Amino acid sequence: MAPSKRAKILLFGDSITQMSFSAACGWGACIADRYQRRADVINRGFSGYNTDWFLRYANTETGKADLFEHDRVKLVTIFFGANDASDEVYNKRQHVPLEDYKNNIRQIIALAKTNFGSDVSIILMTPPPICSEGRLKFQKERYKEKATGVLERTLELSCKYAKAVADISGELNLPLLDLWSIMQTVPSWPTLLSDGLHLSPTGNKFVGEALLDTIDKLLPELAVKLDPVSGNANSASECKQMNRVAPWQDDIDHNQPEIAFDGI
């Protein structure tokens, strides 16, 4: 049996990626909606993971098959840092030193290129900003009287890791989605987060639209131009590098349907 000709988009990340297929407008679901009939969007997000744990998994036999045994991969998003940027004293378990984090991101990029080809498109996404008030509120709601009132993540720490991703983007000439910066341009940006760290439904919608906008501007050959009339990704939509893999219904003659399917 011949392999599928459908393109693939891989999302690598932590819980913010794992939860991106949420029915409440997950950002990954937004991408899948835009690429319907053109690409399978494959979620490889791992809740709680930092870049060190992801690389350890990537070097196991199971991890190699799970992460890299995919053909026709056109785009990979790399979205880590929310856990790496944990405080090294108050969350030593997930904390990854900044220089190690930078080297890990470079290794993940190298693995993507080695396994999917040097021409695969990669978008680096910075960790989001941290809202201290939201983290403290979440802590009180979850742990009640046992809440410590100590922040294990801060805006200042996440800034350092976001800047590191931006630096690597410039160093390797890769597209960047700087969520740490653009989310804070929203006057009520803490509402984009459900608990000061993870995305709310509004935040998911924001990230989905921001990622699609990044593709449109920086990777136009992968962008889907929607039907100008309906605004849908149907037969009047276009994408230079990701074609539909079955005939559009408009192209099927009910008197001679076999013609549309001949030779595909």
Condensed summary:
Helices cover 39% and strands 11% of the residues. The chain has 264 residues and is α/β, with parallel strands linked by helices.
Descriptive report:
This protein is of the alpha/beta class. It has helices at 15-18, 27-34, 51-58, 61-68, 98-116, 132-143, 155-172, 179-183, 201-218, 258-261, and strands spanning 7-13, 39-45, 73-79, 121-125, 176-177. The protein has a five-stranded parallel β-sheet with strand order 2-1-3-4-5, sandwiched between helices. Helix 5 (98-116) crosses helix 7. The radius of gyration is 20 Å and the shape is globular.
**Strand order of the biggest β-sheet:** 2-1-3-4-5
CATH topology: Rossmann fold
> Residue-averaged pLDDT, rounded?
96
What is the overall shape?
globular
Supply the CATH superfamily name: SGNH hydrolase
The total of helices stands at 10
Number of structural domains? 1
Q: Work out the strand percent.
A: 5-15%
Class from secondary-structure proportions: alpha/beta
Could you tell me the number of beta strands?
A: 5
Extract low-pLDDT stretches: none
| Span between termini | 13 Å
- CATH hierarchy: architecture: 3-Layer(aba) Sandwich
Largest sheet: 5 strands, parallel
N to C succession of SSEs: EHHEHHEHEHHEHHH
What is the C-alpha radius of gyration, as a whole number of Å? Answer: 20 Å
CATH class categorisation: Alpha Beta
Give the helix proportion (percent range).
25-40%
